[in-house]
Recover the amino acids of this structure.
């Protein structure tokens, strides 16, 4: 529970969203302050993707619950993209009017030989710059994970969350390391950007 910096009322920054299509059934809870849901629980049917979303929640300092039943017998694309959309919508709901948030954040995160640069702005203007190339191999698992899907995930998330995100690979040879560094970098940037440090909406326009 947190006091709204301008209105003086008790508030919880929690977003809940569900999405049902012929391809997927997704449910997401995002709790930015861990006020009611402090853990991380992820189940999408794709073990590596689950592992990355777990990193996003834990290093982002937020409660996160994600469940998805998707048509994995067809392809993982629908699951990954629809989870991104639903997470972005829940994240936007949790942020509310963004009063007092820090708004901007950047982070450069290493993982062994890999190094990824992340910059984030809770701008209200969806934009993704994804400058990450992978060595090419899929991540082993059942089912295997295609790294190309990560750009689709981040695009879906940024559009639905209405934020600006730049992801740039500085260096790296191991696909797993590059992907994990990117998720940890976004997580830490989210953690910094949503931090309450004032009372006003950080924009000359008065809203984000």
């Amino acid at each position: 529970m947190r006091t709204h910096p301008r209105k003086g009322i008790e508030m919880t920054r929690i977003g809940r969203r569900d999405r049902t299509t012929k391809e997927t059934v997704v449910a997401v809870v995002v709790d930015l302050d861990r006020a009611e849901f402090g853990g991380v629980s992820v189940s999408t049917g794709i073990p590596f993707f689950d592992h990355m979303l777990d990193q996003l929640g834990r290093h982002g300092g937020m409660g996160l619950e994600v469940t998805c039943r998707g048509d994995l017998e067809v392809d993982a694309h629908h699951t990954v993209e629809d989870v991104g959309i639903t997470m972005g919508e829940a994240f936007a709901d949790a942020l509310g009017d963004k009063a007092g948030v820090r708004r901007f954040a950047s982070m450069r995160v290493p993982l062994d030989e890999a190094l990824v640069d992340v910059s984030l702005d809770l701008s209200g203007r969806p934009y993704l710059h994804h400058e990450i190339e992978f060595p090419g191999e899929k991540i082993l698992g059942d089912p295997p994970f295609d790294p190309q899907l990560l750009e689709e995930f981040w695009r879906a998330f940024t559009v639905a969350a209405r934020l600006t995100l730049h992801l740039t690979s500085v260096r790296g040879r191991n696909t797993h390391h590059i992907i994990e560094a990117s998720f940890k970098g976004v997580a830490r940037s989210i953690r910094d950007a949503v931090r309450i440090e004032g009372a006003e909406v950080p924009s000359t326009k008065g809203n984000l």
Summary: The mean pLDDT is 94. Residues 15 and 91 are 6 Å apart (CA to CA).
